[in-house]
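For reproducibility, we list the full input for the protoporphyrin IX containing FE complex.
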Amino acid sequence: MTDGQRAWLTTRYDDAILALKDNERITKNLQSLSPEDYASVIPEKEMALISKQMLSSDPPDHTRLRAIVSKAFTPQMIDRMESDIQRIAEDLIDRIEQTGKLEAIEDFAFPLPITVISRMLGIPDDDYVLFKRWSSDFIEAANNREKLKTAFPSLQAFRLYLEELIDARRKTPGDDLISLLIQAHDDQDRLSGDELVSTIWLLIVAGHETTVNLIGNGLLALLENPDQLRLWRQDPSLTATAVEELLRYYSPVEIATSRWASRDFEWHGKDVRKGDLILVGLGAANRDPAQFDDPGRLDLSRKKNKHIAFGNGIHFCLGAPLARIEGRIALTALLRRLPNLRISPSFTGLEWRPGILMRGLRELPIELR
Ligand code: HEM
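The corresponding predicted structure, in tokenized form, follows.
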């Protein structure tokens, strides 16, 4: 790495699975190794904001934090959201039809998941304009200490916003996820104040940054492969395998979030040292020819598809069932209602957002007719 940090990147499918499942030699909790490591870059409160949640924890904290949130992510809760998600998608497409213009990321792929997660949490719909930038600044800086310095004001603003939101919800609780988490803190003492704020932060960031990419990248893959797009339109029974294939083909999370070696060990004849950064290449694993036939080909009817776009092991994505429903509804609604979609012929600037964590487009201008 440019800052002198020793780092390893897995590129094979089998190695990715090994790294994701290895809780003995690999940790998610940087502070357990070197508490001072990020202290010079991020002040304590902002460090707590980004780290006191399940994705940056090892058992037993991980087990406890995940169990609390899992209570809300029941199949029943997600089923209840399905009609809401459909409504949100149809409303966005109504607006697109009225204006006759579609910038697929800004007008559709982004607002859909952010509205869904905001409603689940009980955040007012319009507030997302506030935290869009804060979230994006962090994602683009992840794994880069220098860039994290520039993201610090955004983290601070995000933390203050969440603290005010929690105070307001404490006064007037609802049947939303934030109220449920406040209850777990206030009444049952099952999560600390820092963990409460950090868990809500994780749900907002993980709940939309990823799904935007499933919808945006999925649409791009379809428009780049018109034969597959035609096939799906002709045969709606392909939907289940199609969404999985789109998750594999342009995996929304390119690299699983950071892990560190918690002790020295040998791997494929190389010396991994305690404190080394371990990056798990999900995108690479999902194109490994040893695991997938003809991995560079988009095949919406692919049956043998054990992709790891949602990770693996104890940190397997908690929101996967929700994300799958969002992806299915978003893409099928677009294809049904806008039959002549194509990438704007004048558009030549296809660009992925910076940062190694995610694979997502900056913009995708579309012609409707
Ligand atoms: C297409 C959309 C999504 C993709 C590709 C995705 C991918 C992932 C991946 C790869 C991980 C594991 C990261 C690691 O091991 O370092 C993860 C964890 C997680 N995801 Fe997602 N995610 C998506 C949508 C969502 C949604 C909608 C939510 C809902 C709030 C969500 C919540 C979480 C949470 C809470 C974790 C942490 C789980 C744990 O540490 O036990 N994700 N996700």
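The pocket of protoporphyrin IX containing FE is lined by residues 20, 54-55, 66, 117, 202-203, 206-207, 210-211, 214, 252-253, 256-257, 282, 309-311, 315, 317-319, 322-323 (CB under 6 Å). The longest strand covers residues 255-261. Both points were considered when choosing residues for closer inspection.
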